[in-house]
Amino acid sequence: MEQYVIKGGNPLVGEVEIGGAKNAALAILAAAIMTDETVTIENLPNVRDINVLLNAIEGIGARVERINKHKVKINGAFINDLSVDYEFIKKIRASYYLLGALLGKYKKAEVALPGGCDIGSRPIDLHIKGFRALGAEVDIQHGLISAHADALNGTHIYLDKVSVGATINIMMAASMAEGKTIIENAAKEPHVVDVANFLNSMGANIRGAGTDVIRIVGVEKLHKTEYSIIPDQIEAGTFMFAAAATKGDVTVKNVIPKHLEATTAKLIEAGCEVEEFDDAVRVVSSKPLRHTQVTTLAYPGFPTDMQPQMAVVLGIAQGTSTVTESIFENRFKYVDELTRMGADIKVESNIAIINGVKNYTGARVSAPDLRAGAALVIAGLSAEGITTVDDIYFIERGYEDFDKKLQSLGAQIEKVSSEKEIQKFKLKVS
Ligand SMILES: CC(=O)N[C@H]1[C@@H](OP(=O)(O)OP(=O)(O)OC[C@H]2O[C@@H](n3ccc(=O)[nH]c3=O)[C@H](O)[C@@H]2O)O[C@H](CO)[C@@H](O)[C@@H]1O
Ligand SMILES: C=C(OP(=O)(O)O)C(=O)O
């Protein structure tokens, strides 16, 4: 089993390139099978979730040609199976997008209930409500969601809760329904907009993505396109927090600064300087970090996928901070691990009360999920001594070359797979 071993204490300095957004790419890959023509997708992140989904897409008969690490061609004309197996997708959440894509195109789909990180109960009732409102019959039996319809008909759907997944899934199915669909209380995340732009480039008619009312006029057919995925705001934010925690000076390149506004605002409150350029942001952390309050919210609020990374920064800020998690009830699993590194954090219901300590001390910790794992790496980079992070396969779900990118900023981090390699690393850095 692979681990990261880290010698903390080096400020991160330099420039880092951000890849394509995992959570946009997953939906876009699923939507790509909605045409029988060839779709080319660029700026694809080379991470585990993407490769799992590409295998699932190949598994139902679509042709997938990997042009290079970040570019793929997909042709959905050869799909011969409308049932997506549990084996392919048990590890990823976004498998549910195949439901909307197949239902829209073929009016029939069967997909195993999705996996993904264990960060809360993660129901999919709103997706199902949307498909039913479009006229589909939806059943869950033996771990499979089956949906079918003679025809999908445009309708008015109000989402009781803001949901990224439900918004995108309904948008995909409605793109090939008859007539007009209106989604109210839609999610406004940048990846919702990216998926709408992608579908529109295939001939769909979607207006209003990025606001809370999305209007879709169904079309009979979608066509080929070439599309480049937006930069990953969560990967970008993770490097921004790593700069903050290590007292560094990092320019994060290939980003859309507007998508990072909530992160930027909180870093400034915590005492960092953040400079914005057209497609880059620079974070300088030269003053003592200060306490602040953070609440996770749907976009444009502070993203839940950045909550653990922010908490790690506040764990070494002066004073008492609070972090309120309002999206997923089980996203504080990193707290026990961070406590082993010297943090002083108490969780009461959905609020973490963080009393800043002077610094973390290296320890052996385990990544409980993707973002919590990245946060523990940040803690290790700022800590005194050696930290080993176990279960890094979670981190590899969503970060491409995380260790190499950090090394390029001066971090002492290595991926190892044995005790012997850990000892070798310790000798090297001592
Ligand atoms: C693959 C992907 O893109 N994952 C992201 C997506 O997850 P995901 O799409 O699963 O998250 P949602 O936006 O749907 O969830 C938001 C909230 O709505 C609730 N809910 C959701 C659907 C539903 O049918 N019923 C319901 O009650 C959820 O439990 C949660 O409390 O958005 C989350 C919120 O930004 C991110 O943390 C995840 O990284
Ligand atoms: C929680 C995440 O992913 P998923 O929804 O796929 O579990 C994430 O990207 O932070």
UniProtKB/TrEMBL annotation:
> Which NCBIfam families is this protein grouped with?
murA (TIGR01072), PRK09369.1 (NF006873), PRK12830.1 (NF009470)
A single GO molecular-function term is: UDP-N-acetylglucosamine 1-carboxyvinyltransferase activity
* Catalyzed reactions: phosphoenolpyruvate + UDP-N-acetyl-alpha-D-glucosamine = UDP-N-acetyl-3-O-(1-carboxyvinyl)-alpha-D-glucosamine + phosphate
Q: In which pathway does it act?
A: Cell wall biogenesis; peptidoglycan biosynthesis
TM regions (residue ranges)? none
PTM annotation (2-(S-cysteinyl)pyruvic acid O-phosphothioketal): residues: C117
Listed InterPro entries: Enolpyruvate_Tfrase_dom, Enolpyruvate_Tfrase_sf, MurA_subfamily, RNA3'P_cycl/enolpyr_Trfase_a/b, UDP_GlcNAc_COvinyl_MurA
Which organism is this entry from? Roseburia yibonii
Residues binding phosphoenolpyruvate are K22, N23
Q: What is its EC number?
A: 2.5.1.7
- Residues annotated as the enzyme's active site: C117 (proton donor)
Q: Which keywords appear in this protein's UniProt record, sorted alphabetically? A: Cell cycle, Cell division, Cell shape, Cell wall biogenesis/degradation, Cytoplasm, Peptidoglycan synthesis, Pyruvate, Transferase
Q: What is this protein called?
A: UDP-N-acetylglucosamine 1-carboxyvinyltransferase
What this protein is reported to do is described as: Cell wall formation. Adds enolpyruvyl to UDP-N-acetylglucosamine.
Q: Which family does it belong to?
A: Belongs to the EPSP synthase family. MurA subfamily.
- CDD domains recorded for this chain? UdpNAET
Q: What is the top EC class of this enzyme, as a single word? A: transferase
Domain Enolpyruvate transferase: residue ranges: 7-406
Q: Where does UDP-N-acetyl-alpha-D-glucosamine bind?
A: R93, R122, P123, I124, D125, L126, K161, V162, S163, V164, D305, I327
Q: Where in the cell is it found?
A: Cytoplasm
Q: Name one Pfam family in it.
A: EPSP_synthase
